[in-house]
Amino acid sequence: MEIFTIDIHTHILPENIPSFRERFGYGGFIHLEHHVPCKARMMMDNKFFREVEDNCWDAEARMKECNEHHVDVQVLSTVPVMFSYWAKPQDCLQVSRFLNDHIAEIVDRYPKRFIGLGTLPMQDPELAIQELQRCKDIGLAGVEIGSHVNDWNLNDPNIFPVFEACQDLDMCVFIHPWDMMGKNKMERYWLPWLVGMPAETSLAICSMIFGGVFEKLPKLRVAFAHGGGSFPATVGRVEHGFNVRPDLCAVDNEINPRDYLGKFWIDSLVHDPKVLQYVVDLIGADRIALGTDYPFPLGELQPGQLIHSMSYDDKLKEQLLSGSALSWLNLAKNKFS
Known about the structure:
By secondary structure, the protein is of the alpha/beta class.
């Protein structure tokens, strides 16, 4: 049986990125060096960051690979290093608009194959809300936000109006780790990606739970990358801490953290069948959506393979492969037929 499939976690870049360093007069921005055909180096000023292939910018190359992998629709979001929350707000707005226009153009060109998420200048919530409205106007379905914004965790009062606007505008939110905690203490072995990223996602979930964001905004549709990071494995510890030290944990929200399981989405990118089964039991299949981190190597290299490998019936597989994604996006399947 061919099951309709949506991948909610894929990243894309424009093929040609302006020199924001020259435009703004300071560094830290990413550009691409196209050094050989179909490949480019992501460069942060003169420092190598990552090599990418044409499937990172070419919609046609992506669709070819999607056809091979039996993925019907990709949800597009920028690479988190592009967030630029550290930049001057008006400069970050320019970067965001450039990236958002690129994604919107691809979605407009191939509306049956792609859904777009925007990026926002989160360091200036007023500008972020303005760009959020523009994202909706140009056809994007939601936004991708980092696991923190500089020194603000996601419970910070400065960020709440942006989440409130997402709920009011019916824009879904995808939260992705970036600028990983402790990265200067674990430079070897790729540990910021292996250890820091899961911790960042748990930080984001706990901040939103303890800060009362989900309680105050019950219609806000939020999905977290990488299977919720380390949160599912530590929810017992989080709940226990809440119970034994409410003076520290329950200062902004008196609801047990476990009560929020099933009130947000996670992607399926857990790399292990036992872990997938655990999160299905813990959170519910209706809150788990296929996510692969395409086209990067730390993602699922054969999209959907883990879900297909499970001894689930077709109804449950369809829930994981597209049903949960459609509910998070608040879209109907017939939009793509």
